[in-house]
Design brief:
Layout lengths: L5 E5 L3 H11 L4 E5 L2 H10 L4 E4 L8 H10 L1 H4 L3 E5 L5 H7 L5 E6 L4 H16 L7
Parallel strand pairs: 1-2, 1-3, 3-4, 4-5
Length: about 130
């Protein structure tokens, strides 16, 4: 992981995507897309350290995107946090958790501070602790 981790945020709700981006941009390089196709392209064009994604998106939804990630050696190693609407059922949560790259499933009603902390925890679990600032 480079000194400033790159995070791809995917959500068809532009307001929510902007909110997540604004929350993270002080500590991370953030790229925003609005569907799974854009997510795959963003992850392939520049090394990516984590993805935060919605499930219900146009063109290629989050589940289909996760399937595509699983078929690609590079994409399959990227940890994913799923952040989705409160109507996300327990059955859907269990379906998403079948994908090994999914490290967290959170509700969109989760506070941005909690999302940022969960992201940091996932990055540390995946890549090791962040080195101290010299």
């Amino acid at each position: 992981m480079k000194s400033t981790p790159r995070i791809v945020v995917l959500d068809d709700n532009e307001v929510f995507a902007s909110l997540v981006s604004a929350t993270l941009e002080a500590d991370y390089e953030v790229a925003v897309g609005h569907n799974g196709l854009e997510g795959i392209a963003l992850c392939r064009e520049t090394p990516t350290d984590a993805v935060i994604t919605d499930i219900g998106m146009p063109d290629l939804d989050g589940i289909a995107m996760l399937r595509e990630f699983g078929k690609d050696h590079y994409l399959a190693r990227i940890p994913v946090l799923v952040v989705t609407a409160t109507h996300f059922t327990r059955i859907s949560r269990e379906a998403v958790r079948r994908f090994p790259q999914v490290k967290r499933v959170l509700s969109k009603t989760t506070g941005m501070d909690v999302l940022a902390q969960e992201l940091q925890t996932v990055l540390e679990e995946t890549y090791g602790p962040k080195p101290p600032v010299q």
